[in-house]
């Protein structure tokens, strides 16, 4: 009986490690980290960026799995939401950039002059969606 539980624990941990490694590799492969470093001219700190992403994933999982309370209470949750939204937005934009979605879309429907408004609309929609999501959870 206990051998079976140990086996399930080992398989669960190994699966979790594999999924996390795949996700972090995907984030790095999309170029989110290198794009941040390039735009901020802080290329010498790429390892720090990658370590922070890894620590965020690990701590996020620990808080989620064990149901730990967020230190700092209600004032840190909006800050966390803001940074999470920025990260997810950058991640989705990097994915869209890799897939060349926007150049093809803009050429097809001929909206070259409206590109700044299109980006602003996507950012506003993402922000409002995140605000509504977190407002309903409270």
Automatic annotation (TrEMBL):
Q: Is Membrane among the key words of this record?
A: yes
Recorded source organism is Coprococcus comes
Instruction: Keywords in alphabetical order, please.
Output: Membrane, Transmembrane, Transmembrane helix
Which positions are tagged coiled coil? Answer: none
Transmembrane segments in this chain: where?
Answer: 6-34, 46-69, 75-102, 114-135
Q: Is Transmembrane there in the keyword field?
A: yes
Name the record gives this protein = Stage V sporulation protein AB
């Amino acid at each position: 009986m206990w051998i079976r539980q140990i086996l399930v624990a080992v398989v669960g941990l190994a699966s979790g490690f594999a999924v996390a490694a795949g996700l972090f590799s995907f984030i790095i492969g999309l170029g989110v980290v290198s794009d941040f470093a390039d735009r901020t001219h802080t290329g010498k700190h790429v390892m720090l960026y990658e370590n922070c992403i890894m620590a965020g994933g690990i701590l996020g999982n620990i808080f989620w799995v064990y149901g730990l309370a967020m230190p700092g209470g209600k004032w840190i949750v909006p800050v966390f939401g803001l940074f999470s939204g920025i990260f997810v937005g950058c991640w989705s934009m990097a994915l869209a950039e890799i897939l060349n979605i926007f150049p093809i879309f803009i050429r097809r429907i001929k909206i070259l002059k409206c590109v700044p408004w299109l980006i602003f609309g996507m950012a506003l929609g993402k922000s409002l969606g995140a605000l509504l999501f977190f407002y309903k959870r409270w």
